[in-house]
Design goal:
Elements lengths: L14 H16 L7 H23 L5 H29 L2 H25 L8 H11 L1 H6 L3 H25 L10 H15 L1
Length: about 200
């Protein structure tokens, strides 16, 4: 009789949570730095880059966890809240009324989408489309728009991309009757809906 040797469970890497913690601490540190100092951009840049690697490493090493997910959400919230705190008055003074109107449109689309998904699927919309990721990347660049003296054009591009990404995300939910977080584009939503309709017929 062959004996089965039970495999030891693979130890999860703590690196993703360390990177996320660096972002959280870095975000808090930026609050106390001047936006006109090199130190601010070094700390902000390093903290922001951890967001590109913590999730990827967690998936590669099978180290995803509920704690890591919550920590990542908190770190993201603190990171962007700290950036908004440092730059809001500058943005308010420098940006034209058109920007704030467009921002209101983008936020309204998001609210409608979240409400629709909650009513239809009884869950919070957590689909991360490529458009949403691009919007996030452009939002991360806000301090660099400032230091490079391209604040207005950079912010206008960011809000327009944000509107297009918000519209795509809303249309994805209108087109595809199911809910699938792997749907990253409107084209994939159309494809999956056609497949669903074929399987039902």
């Amino acid at each position: 009789m062959d004996e089965q040797i039970a495999e030891k469970p693979r130890k999860k890497s703590i690196i993703p949570n360390i990177l996320t913690s660096i972002r959280l601490v870095g975000a808090i540190v930026t609050i106390f730095l001047s936006i006109d100092s090199p130190a601010y951009y070094i700390v902000y840049g390093v903290a922001g880059l951890t967001d590109a690697f913590d999730g990827m490493i967690a998936r590669k090493t099978n180290s995803s966890s509920q704690f890591g997910s919550v920590l990542d959400s908190i770190a993201d919230l603190v990171f962007y809240a700290a950036m908004a705190y440092k730059f809001f008055m500058t943005l308010w003074e420098e940006l034209p009324l058109a920007f704030w109107i467009l921002l209101g449109v983008a936020l309204a689309i998001r609210v409608v989408t979240y409400a629709y998904v909650y009513v239809k699927h009884k869950k919070f919309d957590s689909i991360h489309t490529y458009g949403s990721k691009l919007t996030g990347a452009l939002t991360f660049l806000i301090p660099f728009y400032y230091i490079l003296n391209i604040l207005v054009i950079g912010m206008m591009i960011t809000v327009i991309v944000g509107i297009l990404a918000s519209l795509e995300q809303m249309l994805i939910h209108f087109i595809y009757k199911g809910y699938d977080e792997s749907v990253k584009t409107i084209f994939l939503a159309k494809k999956k809906q056609k497949e669903a309709e074929k399987s039902e017929s």
